[in-house]
């Protein structure tokens, strides 16, 4: 599906969510490869809380096996998974309403991978543009089987709970296409309507750059993590890349660094970036950075407070994950039974 069509469909879906959010079972997730940052917050995290609060059924997946697509070992897994859980709880995901789980802990989900693999061809796997891009940037000398097949595993992530809506960024659209293909092919080939064909919900993720003016990324160390303290945040913003022009303007094409800082402030304050830039104007980078530091710290203060409260009760945090894993396993077992029945494997 082209991005334009996906955009149009997403606008329709937003209307339907507004009318009856409870009709949607939503699944989305993160790879535990490092701390979540403000790019994640504005790109996807706050949207999950919004959908939960509107009354949709939300599943949040910690995609721990998927960490191993472009590296041999998953480093600091325990630390990163705990960090994700703390961030989820701190931003307002409520485990009483939202299922938070790790796919490695859900055996029946993983078993769906086998029948699903039989439904896609090797050329289809080879064509996936997101996988191609990841192979190009991989730190491994040879491509692993998981790299090529993880989009099929991702279909299992989505279809085990029969999610009908998947909020994603543009890079995930090819994966969602494979999921839709697998759902359709399964239903057709085995003559049973087991799976819904899920929609992508493209959110208008703002293009935030890192503090070095380049794409924000966990591995580049140019992010502002949700877990950063107020002083650390101030330091990161103070060191952010601007340019030689004193007058502040909002022009992402010609002034990416400065514009990204303006945009971040505008997002924190829920304001228009053009207006903000015009107000700062001749105040220059110093005024912009002061304003931005206050805006980010005000936004993050309550989140940080909740985060450190949960961090003092890691027993509870781990229980949230165990409960989520258990709930996901129950659902996955029911789906797997339907799958095996449809395939004639009822012995
Ligand atoms: N591929 C996603 C990412 O890199 C993570 C992910 C795994 C995911 N399974 C998913 C996202 C299922 C949405 C639905 O961020």
Question: Could you describe the 3D structure shown?
Answer:
With 347 residues, this protein is mainly alpha-helical. Helices cover 56% and strands 7% of the residues. The chain has 14 helices and 5 strands. It has helices at 3-19, 38-54, 77-91, 107-111, 113-117, 122-127, 129-137, 145-159, 173-189, 230-238, 256-269, 273-280, 284-311, 314-342; strands at 25-30, 57-62, 98-102, 165-168, 199-202. The chain has a 3-stranded parallel sheet with strand order 1-2-3. The chain has a two-stranded parallel sheet with strand order 4-5. Helix 3 (77-91) packs across helix 13 (284-311) and helix 3 crosses helix 14. The radius of gyration is 21 Å and the shape is globular. Residues 27-31, 61, 63, 66, 154, 157-158, 166, 168, 172 line the site of tryptophan.
How does the major sheet shape up? 3 strands, parallel
Q: Into which percent range does the helicity of residues fall? A: 55-70%
Report the strand count.
Answer: 5
Radius of gyration: 21 Å
Distinct bound molecules: tryptophan
CA-based shape? globular
Order of helices and strands: HEHEHEHHHHHEHEHHHHH
Cα end-to-end separation: 39 Å
Oligomer: single chain
Q: Strand sequence of the main sheet, in spatial order?
A: 1-2-3
Helix and strand composition category: mainly alpha
% residues in beta strands: 5-15%
- What's the rounded overall pLDDT mean? 94
Question: Can you count the helices?
Answer: 14
Which regions are unreliable across 5 or more consecutive residues at pLDDT < 50?
Answer: none
